[in-house]
Amino acid sequence: MTGSLRPVSNPPNPWSTEAVEYLDGERPSAELHVYEDQSREILSHNDSPDVGFKWSVNPYRGCFHACAYCYARPSHEYLSFGAGTDFERRIVVKPQAADLLRAAFDAAKWRGELVAFSGVTDCYQPLEASYRLTRACLEVCVEYRNPASIVTKAPLVERDIDVLTELGRVARASVMVSVPIWDEAKARAIEPFVTTPIRRIRTIERLARAGVHVGVMVAPIIPGLNDEDVVHVLEAARSAGATRAGSVLLRLPGPVKEVFTERLRAALPLRAERVLNRIRETRGGALYDARFAVRGRGQGPYADAIAALFAQTTQRLGMNSENWGSDQATPFRRPRGQLALF
Fold it and tell me: What would the DSSP string read from start to end of 99-155?
């Protein structure tokens, strides 16, 4: 993978008993390392009141895309890794993901609820091209007629159009393509290993043409940086065939504040302080407010203006009016001859 080497840089890990400091100019390169996770379960249960799904599947932990704003970075610290370059280059894979998902669906308590892919990290990041764990899990969803939704930045999702269309036929399937930043230079600065915004719009077009329910996630909206891009992204996505749109205001929990601030100042030095000040305007003077219902939308006049712009634009474009079937009875059905396990 070209361009994968970066100087090692991780905020201090509060769960680690050791810390490493490097002298200036002596930091080693952060090479890609892949680890296997032997977890015995694949379904993660979510009880956060402001997250729109109850169950998620994450075949990978850590993400090669290296988005500076990723709210999932702190989860890597529980593995005794760092939230900085470790999160981006020490990737954990779950090789038994499909078998574990099949076992979960076989359990008597499972009732065919919606399963969200990429609830934490992108299920179509580069390693998926060879590991094919997401595809295998989607094939299990087809087998059991279990609804699934996906959020991704990666055109690799196009590879699985055949599985997605079949899942949409026997159950329900939807894809939300994440395009938070329209300007390519700004996107490259903050999302260094993600394909261009225009290429992601093309993915929306190809999914829509194939009959897959597809939408766009303008998330995160970073005050002072990409709030000016909201209209452009929504219009381009709608023209490509997106029928739904979602947004989340920038979240900077724990060490994400340090990673984001460091990247912002290094990559966009002339704009950095303006962006940080705008963020504080939407967070009561701080860089983050972790309260439920507030963390995803912020507060104050500037946050309200961003929300109003998003709402007015989606309404004008006729987005979010299509019913993707979330309120329909589940079509879940175990394969013939398959008994529910206790």
Answer: HHHHHHHHBTT-----EEETSSS-TTSTTHHHH-HHHHHHHHHHHHT--EEEEES-G
Three-state secondary structure call for residue 264: helix
Amino acid present at 147? P
pLDDT tens-place string over residues 6-27: 676 777 665 444 444 544 444 5
Reported pTM: 0.89
Number of neighbouring beta carbons within 10 Å of residue 113: 13
Residue 311, C-beta contacts closer than 8 angstroms, at least 6 positions apart? none
What the block records as the tokens of 227 is: 């709030």
Cα torsion through 181, 182, 188, 194, rounded to 10: 70
**Identity of residue 24:** D
CA distance 52 to 116: 9
Give 57's strand partners: 43, 117
